[in-house]
Structures are given as structure tokens and as C-alpha cells.
Amino acid sequence: MASTSKDLAGTYLLFNRAAAGFCAITPAAVLGRDDQTILPPEQAALLMAHDRQVMAEDRIITFQEELLTAAGSITFLAIKGPLHDAAGQVVGLFGISRDITERARAEEASRTQLDELRRWQRLVLGREARILDLKQEVNTLLARTGQGPRYPTRPAALIQADLG
Length: 164
Description:
alpha+beta, 5-stranded antiparallel β-sheet
């Protein structure tokens, strides 16, 4: 679990070994520096925006942050909260991050599969509704010739209700 703390300017006061391992840098090399000096600009901007939000709102906030690290793209669940001085003033923030890359990938795969299943469900139900419409048309034509219905039908509206 990566642990960090920063002052109001975003300068690192604490950068543990786990955090350093993700960046392929020593903790000592990070202390006194900010995100802009150790991360690509877009990633630094994201973290700094989250940090500003935590300090401005003076509350603990959980973020999902995807960063390109020495080990590749990693998704972190980051919990960040304000640090206060003795007078209760916000003087910085702490951060605790956990690598949730596999969980995030599994959730994305599940969402993709669910979307695909829903698409197929709409397709199948649409076709079923069309088949029922055709059966109704056949039954109507048969009725015009004095014959009884050949197909049992179920209103298409009921099929749409199956989508639930």
C-alpha cells in the first residue's frame, strides 16, 4: 500500500517504499519535490486537482486514479484526506493508495459483457416481436378466408416487458 503526504504546495513530505516502487525512484529522491517533477504532465495535473479538492473541501475523498508507472498502467484506489495543524487549519494532505488494476479490469470486462448481452437481448426480442407480428398477419389473412388462427400469438408489448 502506497502512503504519501504533502504540504499545501503539493511538496512531498512522506513517500513510502511502496509508492517509490511504483515510480521506480527512491523515497529520498521524491521528498521535497511535487507531482510535476516526477510524473507526466497530464497525470500530475490529475493528482494535483484531486489534492486541491481534498484540501478545499477539508474532507476525506476516495478517487480512482489510473497512472502510467514503471510497471505499466496501474489503477489505484486512492484515499486522500486533509492534514491539520494544532489550530485546525489545513496544512496539507495524506494519501493512501492500493493497486486495484485487476479489479478494475475485471469490472470493465463485466460491463462490456453485460452491454453485449443486453444488445443481443434487444436483438433477439426484436426478432421475436417481428415473428409474432408475422404470425398475427398470417392469422388475420386466414380469418379473412374464414379459417381459424394457425398460430398462438403473444402481444409484442409483453415481449418488451421481458426486458424488465
